[in-house]
Fold this sequence. Notes:
- The protein is mainly alpha-helical.
- The chain has 8 helices and 3 strands.
Amino acid sequence: MSEAIRPEDSESxxxxxxxxxxxxxxVEFEETLYRKYxxxxxxxxxxxxxxxNRHLLRMHARGxxxxxxxxxxxxxxxxxxxxxxxxxxRPRKIEMAKEPIPPRPEPKRFVVSDSHIIAQDIAKTMxxxxxxxxxxxxxxxxxxxxxxxxxxxxxxxxxxxxxxxLDRKAxxxxxxxxxxxxxxxxxxxxxxxxxxxxxxxxx
Length: 203
């Protein structure tokens, strides 16, 4: 007799499918995302809209997606790449797979690696610009994490909000952060800020 699928396994599968429903898009209208999910996810094609929204809220709490307004309508922004979710959601059991699992695409590994390196550079720049000559104590670490969190939230709204936050709260960071945004792109910067925010680069 095969092992029963546990609720947490089913939830992980649903959230993986929601991420896949974004496709190549980083931002998607909520209504469009729901329709794409229903079409591509046959096992869950009858999922009610309110249950779908509850999954989005749980994913938001974990830092996988974030809500925003786009042209006056509710939309969602993907903050992680599909491969990365394997680190935070329970992976599927290999023995349950019907077909061999294909290898992960190499470019996505490079995105995660780039984000970690850039996150370390950003955190170092924040410390040197905000606390020149000061030892890296707990207050410094907390302040850097808070700025990373606010910058990430501002960037999910718009680049204008991102620049406005730098002008108001951290003007000494404006030039290096703009340079990273223009050279590396929005998605890698969002991932890098998330790594700083969660303290992942300190472990």
